[in-house]
Each structure stands twice: as structure tokens, then as C-alpha cells.
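Re: the multi-chain job from yesterday

Posting the exact lines I submitted so nobody has to dig through the queue logs.
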Amino acid sequence: MGGELFVVFVLVIIFVTKLSVLISKTSCKSKVPMRGKVIIVTGANSGLGFETAKDLAKRGGRVIMACRNEHRALAARDLIIAETGNSGVVYKHLDMSSLASVRRFVEDVTSTEKRLDVLINNAGVNGCGDRFTEDGIVEEMQVNYFGIFLLTLLLVPLLKKTGESRIVNVSSTLHFFGRINFEHINKKGYYLDMFTYSNSKLCTVLFTVELARKLKGSGVTVNAVHPGIIMTNITAASCALERLLFSSLCWISSRNVVEGAQTIIYLAVAKEVATTTGKYFIDCKESYMTRKTKNKKLITDLWNYSEKLVGYEELKDQVTCQT
Ligand SMILES: NC(=O)c1ccc[n+]([C@@H]2O[C@H](COP(=O)([O-])OP(=O)(O)OC[C@H]3O[C@@H](n4cnc5c(N)ncnc54)[C@H](OP(=O)(O)O)[C@@H]3O)[C@@H](O)[C@H]2O)c1
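And the result, C-alpha cells for all chains:
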């Protein structure tokens, strides 16, 4: 009898969760055109990045698909051009696991583009094991955070020059499970993959808050987003148990990639959030972030640690608002 009650209890919980998720589904209602605007979407060849790039291309924007694999990127670009009729969609090579690649990408962008209206830091990985990058950084941490840190700060001058511009950082609810311990943040074998992922997404949220503070009054806004739980390639490299857990959560969340991209698109285009900065969004609404965003020392320490690790301490002068 006890066992039967337990099964009923679990089924009720699943039913209520699924119902509440279905009710909370939203879409970006904004019809703002993006003609004349330049947008960078990292990791735009698949999943949420692909859907975001397609939507922004439909709005007439010049979309730069910043991807690591030329073959996959060109196939995705051709698909977007065919579906939207917008030939202003281009591919530029960017491997977030290489700081040299990030620098080359920024050189390329700043030599071809006169403006940058929206930077969408979407590229991400989960389950890279204990791999280190050529820069000696844990791969998951570099792709999901340290690479974003360098890329964003190097693009800040162009964003500032454009006037009103936006940065959208794709994070995750898993940032609530993140921990930052500077002794272990870049150590092999210390954290399970899932926790390294959470740590990287926590860093992204703290970076968002601090960058927003530094850019206040410059016309550049920066916000973070949790897109929901959506079946994409994100766990392709994860272990079987993690993939099984993720698939179950995807089933409960029952959200597809188009729905998942809505909050990212909203932050990139909607007039209502033109001046909103330093916030975290879910389902096109501002949401709660971890209490760690109130820890000024942690945020400053992370910023200083990141500057040192990516080897660019002069970035301080670039991001401080000079109005
Ligand atoms: N799906 C979810 O439930 C969920 C939930 C919360 C947050 N997110 C976040 O949403 C973002 C998009 O993920 P997704 O779910 O759409 O997964 P996805 O389909 O796997 O897309 C990830 C994208 O990032 C690219 N990427 C990976 N490593 C890269 C590198 N070193 N340099 C440049 N690009 C790289 C991938 O390129 P390749 O195709 O070449 O691998 C792909 O285009 C990620 O930041 C993820 O953490 C997803």
C-alpha cells in the first residue's frame, strides 16, 4: 500500500509540474524589425542559437553566425538564407575553447563591421570530461565562461560606439548549484561534469551583473537568460546517466527549440527591455538570481581572476563607462 501511495505521489508531482510548465510557456511578442542592425550569435549552427539567428534574420538583421565548425556553420547559414530570404547572414569562425581564436574573431569583426547592435553569447558545452584547452583552462569553463569574458570585453568598444546596444548571455537555472572556489575552479577532476557546468553558468551570471554595473550609462545593456530545458545537442558528450536525466526533464518541460529561443530573442529585440541591465530572465520575465550576486567580494575576485586568466588586464579601461 505504501508503495502504491508513493507511485501516485510521484505521478501527481509530475502532472502538476508538467501542467505548470505548459501554463508558463511564453513567446516573444515583439515585432521589432532588425534591418540595419548587426547581430552576433555564437554557436548559431544548432539548437537555440540556430533558432535565434533565424528569427533575427527574418527581422532583416545582418546576422554573424560565430561557429567553430565551418561545414556545420555553412549548412546552417544556407538553411537560414533559404528560409528567410535574407542574404545578409554570414559565417565567421570562432572557437570559444581558444583565446587566440576569440582574438582573431574580434579582429575580423572590427575590420568588417562599423557597428554591433547585439552580441548573443549562446555557445556552450556540457560534459567535456577533464579536457584542458590549449590555453590550459578546463574546456567547459573556457567555452561557457572565460571565452565569453574575453570575447565580450574585446567587443565592448564596438558596442559602445554603436550607441544603444545589447549583450545577451545564455546561462541556466543550474547556476544556482554553482560554487566558486578559486583553488579548484580550473583543476582537473575536482568537480563532476554537471557541477563544472553549473559553476560556469554561475560565473556567467556574476559576470553579467558586474559588467552591467561597469557599463551603466554607456548605452550598452547586458542581461542573462535561462531558456528552459530543451532537447538539443547540449548533452551529446555527457555520460549516459546525465543524458537519461536530461531526457526525462525535457519530457516534463515539453518545450521545443523555437520556444526555448523566445527569451533570448526577447532580450535581443524587445523595446520594453531596451534599458534593462544586469538582470536574469526566464520566459520573457525578470526572474530571481542566486544570492551570490549580492556578494561584492566574490564578484570582484572573479573579475580579477578572469582578467588574469585570459591575459588581458588592460580590459578594465575599455569597459568602465566614460560618459
Ligand atoms: N538545452 C537546454 O536545456 C539548455 C538549458 C539551459 C541553458 N542552455 C544553454 O543554451 C546554450 C545553447 O545550447 P543548446 O541547448 O542550443 O545546445 P547545442 O544545440 O549543443 O548548441 C550549442 C552550440 O554551441 C556551439 N559550441 C560548442 N562548443 C563551441 C566552441 N568551442 N566554440 C564555438 N561554439 C561552440 C555548438 O557548436 P557545434 O555544433 O560545433 O558543437 C553549438 O552550435 C548553451 O549555452 C547552453 O548551456 C541550454
